[in-house]
Amino acid sequence: MRVLLADDHALFRAGIASLLQLWGLEVVGQAATGPEAVEQAQLLRPDLVLMDIAMPGFSGLEATRLIKAELPETRIVMVTVCDGDDDLFEAIKCGAEGYLLKATPEEELSWALTRIAAGQPAFSPDLAKKILDEFARVARNGPRKADGDDLSAREREVLTLLAAGETNREIAATLVVSENTVEFHVRNILAKLHASNRTQAAAQAIRSGLVDLPSA
């Protein structure tokens, strides 16, 4: 398999790269930020991306969603220190085919790569149980209602500027990101607030106190 490594720690990337090469895999590229991961994936079209969650620019979750939207055949496995249920479930929603903790032993990483190569998902038994438990909970109680508490810090920044009437281009300039990144955040905001458009999201944010707009 041709593998892209996305992690902001150079020594971790170097260690994983050496291990993968020892196993006969080809490391075709490395990225240290979310935007770099997306750019490298678009350029190199790897078979697999090993993706960290917490990275500069935007998170590995956002990078995963963007990569899968354009390259659905590229498989992505999160390799992270984040062991929270929210990150696990969000990774699955973004399209990740696997989720491993950085403390994972070498043999578990090898097992995961073997499964991915065979077109199968790669989740440890403990994580697979969490996923099944969540499916069962949803079947009983329905999906969790989003009220804005699950908005990321960046999404709250975008929502504040959106509520202030800024366009995507203006928001991109203010936050020094691309318009595509802003569009990605806006889609997430609408989904999390169950809003059908920007105006509805802005009204809901102001009414519920999700954003603080400066006084005129």
Structure description:
The structure is a single chain. The chain is an alpha/beta fold. The protein folds into two domains: 2-141, Response regulator (Rossmann fold, 3-Layer(aba) Sandwich); 153-208, Winged helix-like DNA-binding domain superfamily/Winged helix DNA-binding domain (Arc Repressor Mutant, subunit A), CATH 1.10.10.10. Helix content is 55%, strand content 12%. It contains ten helices and six strands; from the N terminus they run E-H-E-H-E-H-E-H-E-H-E-H-H-H-H-H. It has a six-stranded parallel beta sheet with strand order 2-1-3-4-5-6, with helices on both faces. The model has no long low-confidence stretch (mean pLDDT 85).
SSE topology:
Layout lengths: L1 E5 L3 H13 L3 E6 L2 H11 L3 E4 L8 H11 L4 E6 L4 H10 L3 E4 L4 H12 L4 E2 L1 H17 L11 H11 L4 H8 L3 H15 L4 H11 L8
Parallel strand pairs: 1-2, 1-3, 3-4, 4-5, 5-6
Helix pairs in contact: 2-3, 3-4, 7-9, 7-10, 8-9
Please describe the structure with a list of short key phrases separated by commas or semicolons.
single chain; 6 strands; 55% helix; six-stranded parallel beta sheet; 216 residues; 10 helices; 12% strand; alpha/beta; Arc Repressor Mutant, subunit A; Rossmann fold
What sequence of helices (H) and strands (E) makes up the elements? EHEHEHEHEHEHHHHH
Domains, number? 2
What's the name of the CATH homologous superfamily of the largest domain?
Response regulator
DSSP strand content = 5-15%
Radius of gyration: 19 Å
CATH topology type of the largest domain? Rossmann fold
CATH-scheme architecture of the largest domain: 3-Layer(aba) Sandwich
Which structural category do the helix and sheet elements fall into? alpha/beta
Strand order of the largest sheet: 2-1-3-4-5-6
Give helix % range: 55-70%
Biggest beta sheet attributes: 6 strands, parallel
